[in-house]
Amino acid sequence: MRVWGLLVVLLPGSLALAGCGGNGGTTGTNYSDTPPMAEIVATPGETPSPTPTPTPSPQNAMTMVDPADTLPADVIAFKQKRDACERWMDEEGTDEDRKKEIADGISENCTGTDAALAALKEKHAGEIDVQRALAQYDSDIE
């Protein structure tokens, strides 16, 4: 009699759990199935234009200017010369030959840049991009 009593208690619980398993059926959750994936749909649009690659300036291979730069040519030329000037000014000579090379580089690239900077700021007074580009330079380095 005790066995029948135990079966009466265990059998309904076992049947209830069987419906939650992964062997089909529509009740419960079947954890053995892979979850549904969202479908990604691309929206057709314009093809982006290729990005231009910067090329070194033939006059001064030390300076790279982005050809996509929208600055006027005179401002770009100034930036190239002034950047070269500042690089030469950061150099240290270890011997007399190197010191002469540095002095020549400074003379060639720095002379007249203070006046050129002031003139460009005045010439391009209403151009925000130009003023922003020129603002990074000290007005008195000579």
Total of helices:
5
Give the neighbour order of strands across the main sheet: 1-2
Low-confidence stretches: 57-61
Rg of Cα set: 38 Å
Order of helices and strands: HEEHHHH
Question: Count of DSSP E strands?
Answer: 2
**Major β-sheet, in short?**
2 strands, antiparallel
Overall mean pLDDT stands at 76
Into which percentage range does the β-strand content fall? under 5%
For the termini, the CA-CA separation is 111 Å
Overall helicity: 40-55%
- Give the overall shape: elongated
Structural class: mainly alpha
What does this protein look like?
- With 142 residues, the protein is mainly alpha-helical.
- The protein is 48% helix and 3% strand.
- It is built from five helices and two strands; from the N terminus they run αββαααα.
- It has helices at 2-18, 73-90, 96-110, 113-123, 128-134, and strands spanning 55-56, 64-65.
- The chain has a two-stranded antiparallel sheet.
- Helix 2 runs antiparallel to helix 3.
- The longest helix is centred in the middle third of the chain and has 18 residues, at 73-90.
- The chain is elongated, with a radius of gyration of 38 Å.
Layout of SSEs?
Layout: H1 2-18, E1 55-56, E2 64-65, H2 73-90, H3 96-110, H4 113-123, H5 128-134
Antiparallel strand pairs: 1-2
Helix pairs in contact: 2-3, 2-4
Quick structural summary:
The chain has helices at 2-18, 73-90, 96-110, 113-123, 128-134, and strands at residues 55-56, 64-65. It has 142 residues and is mainly α.
